[in-house]
Design brief:
Blueprint lengths: L3 E5 L1 E8 L2 E9 L3 H14 L5 E7 L5 E4 L9 H11 L4 E8 L6 H19 L1 E5 L7
Helix pairs in contact: 2-3
Amino acid sequence: MADYKTIRGTSTFEYEEKRSRFIATAAFADTEEKALTVLNAVRAANRTARHNVYAYVLQNGRTRYSDDGEPAKTAGTPVLETIGHAGVADVIVVVTRYFGGILLGTGGLVRAYTAAASGALQNAELVSMRLVVDCR
């Protein structure tokens, strides 16, 4: 297994666009079960939110994303691409949207979800993971 970068713990970032609030949570998750646990915790904490969009990338190559009711490829895909551009793995990013009453359009949604996910990843503490063998 090669060295890779990930994040330590959890970080958040809030972004507002035309009265819609986007709250991004980035967290370390090295298994699908841990990623889904983070997703369910964010959903439980934001029950009144309109959307909880997510994407995760695991070191084993597994990726997954969801637009959670937003128009296709306007939410989950930008979040997944943001994780890829950050060069990290074993990470889940969940972006919660509280609708503000004004439609953003497809371009506006892509920009807003990208900005929120990017902010959460920039606030995170980056760490390098390296496989080591204890030779004691």
